[in-house]
TrEMBL record:
It holds the Pfam family CRS1_YhbY. The keyword RNA-binding applies. It comes from Gilliamella apis. Keywords: RNA-binding. Gene3D superfamilies: YhbY-like. The keyword Cytoplasm does not apply. This is Ribosome assembly RNA-binding protein YhbY. Transmembrane segments: none annotated. Residues 1-97 form the CRM domain. One of its GO terms (molecular function) is RNA binding.
Amino acid sequence: MNLSNKQKQYLKSEAHHLKPIVMIGANGFTEGVLAEIENALNFHELIKVKVSAEDRETKKLICEAIIRETKALAVQQVGSIFTIYRPSEDKKITLPK
């Protein structure tokens, strides 16, 4: 599933008031962090994740790994915070066409 620009804009506006639910620190991307992200996506569908890494390349690799492992869609990345979306079985967010 790919998001259109209109859908991404809608999700960005929905995520604007959200605070990061999961924070990735010195231990990096572990199985426990992955489990927390999975739980948060199942419950909320749209979440923010904060990655506390020093360089951009490390942040980018962690973000790509999270998206690959959770099968979520990237909505936006601003600095160390990125927003991801994955629809759950009981749809909470209705995307525009």
